[in-house]
Each structure stands twice: as structure tokens, then as C-alpha cells.
STAS domain-containing protein
Amino acid sequence: MAEFSVTETWCDRVVIVTATGTIDSMTAPWLYNAAAVAVQKKPAGFVFDFSEVDLVASAGMQVLVTTLRMLGPNVGYAVVADGPATSRPLKIAGITDVIALYPGLDEALDHVAGSGG
């Protein structure tokens, strides 16, 4: 299992918050803090990249929903997650009913750029 880390990068006015490792009750606060800092910078779009995440527990899912609420309706938002330990739990929990999920970063960036945010 990879050690948890979270980084922020930008592609034009879209922020990409990339996490690695496991997102659970111990690491979700770090993810939340990174998201909150990024939201304060008023991005036009926001992407969580979970390509290198081993597991997304319920605490991580709560960060996704909270970030959506912090951003508001006019900011494009997407999550990159592909695989049984990331995308499957998000689908089962119903997160994908309100948050766009993509298998790769390019697709997520295209969605966010095209959402007018």
C-alpha cells in the first residue's frame, strides 16, 4: 500500500488535486484541507485525480461531496477513478449520481473545461 500524499497542480484555471495511497478516516482530513485551499483560489474547474489511490473509504467520499458543495453550481467538477478499489465504491455509494467520474485525467479535464465553469 502506498503512503498517502496529496498535491495541487493547475491546468489553466482548472485545479487538479491528486491523491495517492488510501483515503480513509485518517487521511481524509488532509484531502479535505487540500481541497479547501484549492477552492479558496476560485478555480474555474476542479478535478480530483485518484488514479494512484488504493482505496476510497466513506470519509473520502464525504470529502468529494463537501467539495462539490464548496464549489457551487458554476464550477466544473470531476473525479478520476478507475478500478475496483476506487470507482466501484463511488458507484455503489451513489456518488456518481451527482459527481462525474472518469477513467483518465484527459477525459475529466475535457468535461470540466466543457462545463462552462
